[in-house]
Structure formats: structure tokens, C-alpha cells
Write a structure and sequence with these properties.
single chain; 171 residues; mainly beta; Immunoglobulin-like; three-stranded antiparallel beta sheet; 11 strands; 44% strand
Length: 171
Amino acid sequence: MDAGTDDPAKMWGLTLADLHLIKYIKCPITVGFSTQNIDFGTMSSGSAAVGNVASTREVTLFANKDTSGLCRGDKTVFSINAFMKAAPLSAVNAGENLLIPYGADNKPFDSVGIQLLRNKTVIPFNQEATMFEASSEISRSQKLDVNLIWRTDRPVAGRFRGGIIMEFYHR
């Protein structure tokens, strides 16, 4: 409203009453993965080429809404988004959108990077991304591909480890 407007025909007010009667019922959602660890196995570096997939593993992401107690019969529509970032002893190369694992020496293992894909689309690091579209389904699951990507055509042999932290948000 403009300052100095005194014309009652151009003014209006809004009053909300009885807000104490609103009852919020929290129906918890459990989100998880089919596995907590991925082993890419042993691979040959003879075919290494920058950007090529060295190995792929599949994991299942699931979400289940509790429908017991006060939530019985709940058909509320919800979606789930995630914010993915590197865990300790891992790093993110933003230009490549890859997780860089660490080697046995606790330094970045630059031969490979790791990416997650949902519906053949790379899930970005350090920004929110949709994991499950809005729906009233109480139980959902979907496959995610985890790709090991060559970052050099002359990789160094060795063991590595890395981790991803995913923060989930439901709406």
C-alpha cells in the first residue's frame, strides 16, 4: 500500500482467526539406499580414456511414508529433493561434477572420479536436485547408476575410498 493513500475504497485488511485450531500431524518418511558401500572391483587401466566410464554399479533409492497411528490413511502429496556433497576424505571437482576419492595416502586419488545418475542424468553436487517427483504414493523406489569415470589416460593403480553425503528434504 502506498504511503499517503487514505481512500478506504483502495484499502483492505485481512484477519486470520482460530489458528490455534490447526493441527499438524507429522507423518515420517524413511529414505535409504539398498547398500551403504560400493565395490567397483578390479579393472584394467589399458582401456582408460579421459571421461570414459571405467565401471558402473546400480543402487536403489527408496522412500517409505509411515501410515500408522495418526497417519493412517494419509494421502498427502510429497516430493523428495536431495543436496549431495562430498564426505570427509573426498572432494568435489566442480568443473567435472565428480567426487574425487582419496587414496591410501589420504590425498586425492586423481585417476578416477565418481558420479551418480538418476534417469541417465547426472545428479549435481552442491545444489538441490529432485529425487522423487510429487506423488501421494506411500512407498517409492528408483534405480541410481554409480559410475566410476577415468580422469586420465594414464591412471595410477591403487585402492581408493570416497563418500557422499546426501541431505534429503521432503515437501
